[in-house]
Design goal:
Layout (H helix, E strand, L loop, with lengths): L11 H22 L4 H10 L9 H20 L1 H8 L6 H13 L30 H13 L9 H9 L6 E2 L3 H11 L3 H12 L4 E5 L7 E5 L2
Antiparallel strand pairs: 1-3, 2-3
Helix pairs in contact: 1-3, 6-7
């Protein structure tokens, strides 16, 4: 394309529309019709419209401004070029929409965002320490705990199961901290029990805290949180 002065057309808006319309026509002819490389199309078109026939400074500045807008669209917003220049009918209202998008949006990364998909429901088994022990075993453990007077109130198999499963509603108060520690050590000694208890504590389902009373020793409180 010859590098000849661009003929001025009316006011600034008219001149910009003339540039965009010609760029649209050239894009369809060279890039779409002749498979010309897009980068070469941009370079040749801008070089072919570098000068204008304006004689005054205001006209030259106006042309320079419009060329800057066109350069920005061609070099930074190929997505808009493909959207607007592919259509033969490039009317003034199309230019307005093109400029609006150019001035208010950024080029997309090319990655389409997929809509959020609902996560599939997973039916996980309930966290349970008591499931490792049957009722007879828990009854024997409860009997030993009551015989040793570990807690301030008697316990049974149901209370211990709730304690181990993290569903205990009323706290159990220790009567002897050292004996309670020895009591729970063999109960949780199997590796599978220890891992499950660690998970239970980590998720906050099973909580061992301490309660301080005036004029009394500190006592651990076993409570479901």
């Amino acid at each position: 394309m010859a590098n000849k002065p661009h003929k001025s057309v009316g006011n600034e808006r008219d001149e910009l529309f003339a540039l965009l319309k010609e760029a649209s026509f050239t894009y369809r002819k060279e890039v779409i019709g002749e498979s010309k490389l897009y980068e070469l199309y941009v370079e040749d078109f801008l070089n072919g419209h570098y000068y204008s026939d304006h004689r005054d400074a205001a006209g030259k500045n106006r042309h320079r401004k419009n060329i800057g807008i066109l350069r920005g669209i061609l070099t930074k917003r190929k997505d808009l070029v493909e959207q607007f220049f592919s259509n033969i009918l490039f009317a003034p209202n199309r230019m307005d929409e093109l400029l609006r998008l150019f001035n208010t949006t950024k080029a997309s990364s090319g990655l389409k965002e997929e809509p959020d998909k609902p996560r599939p429901e997973t039916n996980l088994p309930a966290l349970s320490l008591g499931s490792f022990l049957n009722d007879n075993q828990l009854s024997l453990i409860a009997h030993c705990a009551n015989e040793a007077q570990l807690f301030t109130t008697p316990v049974n198999a149901g209370i211990l199961r709730s304690l181990l499963e993290g569903t205990l509603h009323q706290p159990l108060k220790s009567a002897n901290n050292r004996l309670v520690a020895f009591f729970f050590r063999p109960v949780m000694s199997p590796p599978s029990h220890s891992r499950t208890l660690g998970t239970s504590v980590g998720t906050g389902r099973f909580h061992i805290g301490f309660q301080r009373r005036p004029s009394a020793q500190t006592r651990p409180v076993f409570q479901c949180t």
